[in-house]
């Protein structure tokens, strides 16, 4: 089995913001370590098989021996030039639109919510994709739950054989096909993981910073922060193997170029 993420990759200015927020989360992590046994890092030395900042379009488990057929089924969706050029452009995010989600094991992830002007079209695209790849998706209700749980932990990308995969990560991927699709699909960029108190503190700090900027009352003595608002298009999409915390690790197939927005 293999854990799969169909991911929308981000332009450099958005990656830069994700790296900045990720660095702040990791500073908090070292001061107030969460229960997790690993962290999300966007450091440059992890680029080859790293934690690539992204917006998830779809996640699932499939059998490894079905991977080539899975890719063949996905390919036509990213060859629909007219549809792609309409849906994957004019995404917008505000730095202050930070949110948190409980991933279990005392871990909360910090994410940036992304506004998509063609959200219903994007949801329809995801629904159509899901319909075609459904035959490959490994579903909990069709398997022995305990046996499946142990098998699926081997489906993730790991930096070492003994790396721990959080139960929350496993559950998120396993249930994505029914819990994060249709009207429950909300595009976002995950930038870090930590304890609830630390993540909540960061959210308050970011919202306060945004308010101070609006009022022209930013404390210049504090660490400078980069741009707070972006409108951007997606120029690359990847099929990736997922690591802990839903990170995009090994890029298996990359789409980009003439069929995606410039």
Features:
262 residues, four-stranded antiparallel β-sheet, three-stranded antiparallel β-sheet, 7 helices
Which secondary structure elements does this structure contain, and how are they paired or packed?
Layout: E1 2-9, H1 12-31, E2 54-62, H2 67-74, H3 81-87, E3 91-94, E4 98-104, E5 107-113, H4 119-133, H5 145-152, H6 167-179, E6 188-194, H7 196-215, E7 229-232, E8 236-242, E9 248-256
Antiparallel strand pairs: 1-2, 1-8, 3-7, 4-5, 5-6, 8-9
Sheet with the most strands?
A: 4 strands, antiparallel
Q: Taking strands numbered 1, 2, ... along the chain, how are they ordered across the largest sheet?
A: 2-1-8-9
Tell the overall outline.
globular
- Compressed to H and E, one letter per element, the order equals EHEHHEEEHHHEHEEE
Question: Regions with pLDDT < 50 over 5+ consecutive residues?
Answer: 33-38
Percentage of residues in helical conformation: 25-40%
Q: Can you count the beta strands?
A: 9
Strand fraction: 15-25%
Q: If you compute it from the alpha carbons, what radius of gyration comes out, rounded to the nearest whole angstrom? A: 18 Å
The average pLDDT score comes to: 79
């Amino acid at each position: 089995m293999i854990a799969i993420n169909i991911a929308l990759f981000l332009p450099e200015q958005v990656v830069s913001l994700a790296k900045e927020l990720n660095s702040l989360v990791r500073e908090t992590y070292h001061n107030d370590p969460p229960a997790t046994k690993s962290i999300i890092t966007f450091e440059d030395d992890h680029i080859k098989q790293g934690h690539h900042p992204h917006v998830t379009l779809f996640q699932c488990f499939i059998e490894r021996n079905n991977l080539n057929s899975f890719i063949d089924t996905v390919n036509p969706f990213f060859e629909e030039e007219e549809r792609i050029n309409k849906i994957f452009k004019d995404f917008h995010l505000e730095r202050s639109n930070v949110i948190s989600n409980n991933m279990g094991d005392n871990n909360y992830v910090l994410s940036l919510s992304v506004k998509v002007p063609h959200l219903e079209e994007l949801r329809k695209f995801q629904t159509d994709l899901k319909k075609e790849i459904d035959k490959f998706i490994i579903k909990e209700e069709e398997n022995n739950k305990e046996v499946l749980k142990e098998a699926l932990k081997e489906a993730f990308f790991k930096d070492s054989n003994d790396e721990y995969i959080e139960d929350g990560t496993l559950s998120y991927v396993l249930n994505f096909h029914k819990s994060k699709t249709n009207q429950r699909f909300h595009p976002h960029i995950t930038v870090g993981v930590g304890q609830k108190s630390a993540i909540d503190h960061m959210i308050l700090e970011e919202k306060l910073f945004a308010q101070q900027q609006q009022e022209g009352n930013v404390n210049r003595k504090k660490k400078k922060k980069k741009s707070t608002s972006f409108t951007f298009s997606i120029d690359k999409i990847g099929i990736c193997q997922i690591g802990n915390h839903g990170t995009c690790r090994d890029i298996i197939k990359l789409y980009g170029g003439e069929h995606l927005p410039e």
